[in-house]
Design a protein that fits this description.
- There is one protein chain.
- This protein is mainly α.
- Helix content is 77%, strand content 0%.
- Helix 6 crosses helix 12.
- The chain has a single domain, classed as ABC transporter involved in vitamin B12 uptake, BtuC (Orthogonal Bundle), CATH 1.10.3470.
- GO terms for molecular function: transmembrane transporter activity.
């Protein structure tokens, strides 16, 4: 009976439909990668795109395309990381409102980086990443501890309120640290908006090991999250170590959030929107939901970056602004349409 309920409740979609949606989302991702390389403030010909992909930078157009290639790759990696982290956090907390931004994880990473820059003069990429990961982890533990206080433990509503309050508090601390420091204020404010502009392969080489580790840990936690979705008591009855399973999955999400925040700045709402959309396509089986969330997150962030280049020409809107315009109304819709108790 238990195995039947797991198979029926966790995997309601047929495998054929899932494979079809996987092919569709993958095709959209390829198209967005092509558009991301082709679209920008400068018009370029297809011959320049092909030449730049081949490593040539003989003309201004080819040089422009060469700069878009690492930007496209960073948007792909960051979007996949945030989409996957959002699905993990919603599974760990059984909270439909869970998101790296809403739960304060991104802002915790931001505060740690700002403290490192303002007080300890960190400058290396590795120091940024370690500070962001530690800040994300500390913030996640703090929010979960606050949300667990009182009757009923860590309910979705209490976690959302604790995360929102923590985000506001950490944001205020960041402002307090940056305001008297004119030497770092400009760079920190630009970074805090959240964007993928100025990406280089050298910057990505530092963050890639953390992202790879986060992806592996997160994807390996799919079966554990399926067990947790049945409830703590039933998961424990099936032989799952509930606390260890939660910590393992959360560690993967923290690595992804911290590393992404270090290189891109805090990008909100993407981790909220993507898992909900993916559940409509593939159901709640995390063995499918997690990889779909990664691919769909990459699509959404690439699309947001492309839109940001188009609507403000010749200037650009950072992806953090575009995702906020998309995510804020979605957040309100989720709050109004769902009873935020558990998934």
């Amino acid at each position: 009976m238990i195995s039947e309920s797991i198979g029926g409740a966790v995997a309601p979609r047929a495998g054929g439909n899932r494979m079809l949606w996987l092919a569709v989302v993958a095709a959209v991702l390829v198209l967005l990668c092509i558009l991301s390389v082709a679209i920008g403030t400068r018009e370029v010909a297809w011959a320049d795109i092909v030449a730049a992909i081949g490593g040539r930078e003989d003309t201004i157009a080819q040089a422009a395309v060469a700069m878009r290639i690492p930007r496209t790759l960073l948007a792909l990696l960051a979007g996949a990381a945030l989409g996957l982290a959002g699905a993990i956090m919603q599974g760990v907390t059984r909270n439909p409102l869970a998101d790296p931004g809403i739960l304060g994880v991104n802002m915790g990473a931001s505060l740690a980086v700002v403290v490192g820059v303002a007080w300890f003069n960190i400058a290396s990429a590795d120091a940024y990443i370690f500070a962001a990961v530690l800040g994300a982890g500390a913030s996640a533990v703090f929010v979960y501890a606050i949300g667990s206080l009182g009757r009923g433990g860590a309910t979705p509503l209490k976690l959302a309120l604790a995360g929102a309050a923590t985000s506001v508090a950490f944001s205020s601390l960041v402002i307090a640290l940056v305001l008297p420091r004119n030497d770092i204020a400009g760079g920190i404010r630009a970074w805090q908006i959240g964007g993928v502009g100025g990406a280089t392969f050298e910057r990505m080489s530092h963050v890639l090991p953390f992202l790879v580790a986060g992806f592996i840990i997160s994807l390996l936690s799919a079966r554990k999250l399926n067990s947790l979705a049945l409830g703590d008591d039933l998961a424990a009855g099936l032989g799952e170590r509930v606390a260890l399973a939660r910590a393992f999955a959360a560690f993967g999400a923290i690595l992804l959030c911290g590393a992404t925040t270090a290189v891109c700045g805090p990008i909100g709402f993407l981790g909220l929107v993507v898992p909900h959309l993916c559940r409509l396509l593939v159901g709640v089986d995390h063995r499918w939901l997690l990889p779909f969330s990664a691919v769909a997150g990459a699509c959404l962030l690439l699309g947001a970056d492309i839109v940001g280049r188009i609507i403000a020409r010749p200037a650009e809107l950072d992806v953090g602004i575009v995702t906020a315009f998309v995510g804020a109304p979605f957040f309100i819709w989720v709050v109004r349409r769902q009873r935020v108790r558990e998934l």
